[in-house]
Amino acid sequence: MSATAANVPPFRAFSNKLVLPWLVAVALFMENLDATIINTAVPTMSASLGVEPLSLKAVLTSYTLSLAVFIPISGWLADRFGTKRIFMIAVALFTLGSLLCGLSVNIHMLVAARVLQGIGGAMMTPVGRLALLRSFPRSEMLTAMNYVVIPALIGPLLGPFVGGLIVHVVSWRVIFFVNIPFGLLGLWLTRKHMPDFRDEHVAPLDRTGFILFGTGIALLSYVLEIFGEHTWPVTPLSLLALLSVALLTAYGWHARRDPAPVLQLRLFKTRTFRISVVGGFVTRLGIGGMPFLLPLLYQIGLGYAPWQAGLLTMPSAAAAIVMKLASRRVLARFGYRTVLAANTILLGLNMMVFSFITADTPVVLILLLSFMQGFFASLQFTSMNSLVYADIDDRDTSKAGSIASTAQQMSLSFGVATASLVAAWFLGHVDKTDTLRFVAGLHHAFLVLGSLTIISSLVFRGLRPEDGVAISKHAHAPVRAATTVTEEAVD
């Protein structure tokens, strides 16, 4: 493995290490801001583009789906062409996609631009974390990651309010233009401070696996999107669904025979990895739809302005920051099994309580409910993301991270599609001007999504009390030999 750090003066190498965490933080901030700033603008964007609000789920799912498809090859691209070049390309694509989103004249152009954003985003975060992993010794990695995570959480904190304020004062298109100065700053910092790590002996890209997996996931997501709009007959939709399943099954067969598959499925033989990924997937199917449905409830159902709807979601992001600082102590006190099994139920119940929100609900109660959602969700995500690496060998952490990140983005994309399907089922042909029936339909959707989240707690019951003790430091867990895990793997 070679790196530019060996070819630059010591002062420059030291300077790079100081700036690198902030560079990765800028990338994460852009991604998280973009993922949340658009939610409160959905009703306004739908009116501007002349489509129904539920149809705009394609704008959300196309981005997360692109992440799921392209994340698996981001590590290979960095090893093959260097972290500096790939990170610059990623930032440039994301910035260009943002510009095209703001210039879009119809939903089709907007979706295409979001796909371009997703391709850039799929490479930005994994490559940035890879550069951190190879720049810092393990004793310094936790400190470096703290510089990255906290600024990244500011995006979800500010995104809904800023997005609502922008569409209230100016055009929704400005939402996407906000990314451009951050993108230009990221390009400048990358050119000056990003180290250029690469692997001269990287294995050839698993092109067959990439095509099989990417095509299968894209088709499956398309089927879910079209099915929710009821614009296709059942027969062709069924055939497309079968084709997507066949492609994904073919990838599974291929991955067991290829020495270097794009996603290493043998890791699913590890119990803690399997439970964290599968349980996390099901959990995110429920929680992933909430950012899509809540703006519809607040703006269309309750009549709040976009900036007011953004304020109602801000406590959720603030609670996530608070829990991020406390999650290690919670896991040390109760352990992974207890935390995940119990917290998933609390999260689902909290989601179901949103079905009681009406125009007469005091704002303070809505804010409290939003805070509790962020509190439970942050603990859930931190626990699931860190448990992924509990029993994974050091040499496989990057492979485990690729699978976990891909599954996470898939589940969030499918979560939006699921929320749209459920909402469309209960709303039927309800006119959005009929606010009472519109709110009632959304209430039913919250109950279904909350129930789905609660069901996922059954997956985590398969954990043992001592699972993940090497990470959680759970004092009351039975003593057993624990696999060493890298601190940088813990989210």
Key attributes of the depicted protein:
single chain; 491 residues; mainly alpha; Growth Hormone, Chain: A; 3 domains; 18 helices; disordered N terminus; transmembrane helix; MFS_dom; MFS_trans_sf
In short:
Keywords: Cell membrane, Membrane, Transmembrane, Transmembrane helix, Transport. It is a multi-pass membrane protein. With 491 residues, the protein is an all-alpha fold.
Task: Describe the fold and architecture.
With 491 residues, this protein is mostly helical. It has 3 domains: 1-194, MFS general substrate transporter like domains (Growth Hormone, Chain: A); 206-261; 264-491, MFS general substrate transporter like domains (Growth Hormone, Chain: A). The protein is 75% helix and 0% strand. Helix 1 runs antiparallel to helix 5, helix 1 runs antiparallel to helix 8 (179-193) and helix 3 packs parallel to helix 5. It starts with 9 loop residues before the first helix and ends in a 19-residue tail after the last helix. It comes from Nibricoccus aquaticus. Its main location: membrane. It is a multi-pass membrane protein. Keywords: Cell membrane, Membrane, Transmembrane, Transmembrane helix, Transport.
Shape by Cα distribution: globular
Poorly predicted runs are 1-6, 479-491
Tally the beta strands.
0
Largest sheet: none
CATH superfamily of the largest domain: MFS general substrate transporter like domains
Helical segment count: 18
Count of structural domains: 3
